[in-house]
């Protein structure tokens, strides 16, 4: 999703990935698309990557997460983002998750949209108010 955003004009993208083969594929794809100069890859667990980004400062307009299914990580990560300084008032969070994992509103985030695509669910969040 980040590579697609970059190809459509996003100024930069940060990827957090810790699975070795996925990390390797991500880096190869960024190189093949010549996007290394506008992307950053953090080889970290999601929670560690979020803490790192918070410590560095800054915020994001769009956050997409697609953690491994069946481990409760989508809800956990949305919960961490709800407490995070990485969000602007207009930040859109898109969480891809399995149909058995419910990812509902977590204050101050409200789910503004929900989609079903086969065995994939996508929940969209923004800050309430």
Write up this protein:
With 129 residues, the chain is of the alpha/beta class. Helix content is 31%, strand content 34%. It contains four helices and six strands. The strands form two sheets. A four-stranded mixed β-sheet has the order 3-4-6-5, with helices on one face. Helix 4 links the parallel strand 3 and strand 4. The two termini are 27 Å apart. The model has no long low-confidence stretch (mean pLDDT 93).
Using brief descriptors, characterize the structure shown.
single chain, 129 residues, alpha/beta, Rossmann fold, four-stranded mixed beta sheet
> Between the first and last Cα atoms, what is the distance in angstroms?
27 Å
Rg (C-alpha, Å): 14 Å
The CATH class assignment of the domain at 59-129 is Alpha Beta
Output the CATH homologous superfamily of the domain at 59-129. Answer: Vaccinia Virus protein VP39
């Amino acid at each position: 999703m980040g590579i697609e955003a970059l190809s459509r004009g996003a100024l930069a993208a940060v990827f957090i990935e810790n699975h070795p083969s996925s990390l390797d594929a991500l880096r190869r794809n960024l190189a093949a698309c010549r996007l290394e100069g506008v992307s950053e890859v953090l080889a970290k667990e999601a929670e560690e990557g979020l803490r790192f980004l918070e410590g560095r400062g800054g915020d994001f307009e769009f956050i997409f997460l697609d953690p491994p299914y069946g481990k409760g990580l989508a809800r956990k990560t949305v919960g961490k983002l709800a407490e995070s300084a990485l969000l602007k008032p207009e930040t859109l969070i898109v969480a891809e998750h399995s149909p058995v994992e419910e990812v509902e509103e977590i204050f101050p985030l409200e789910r503004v949209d929900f989609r079903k695509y086969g065995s994939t669910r996508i929940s969209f969040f923004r800050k309430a108010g």
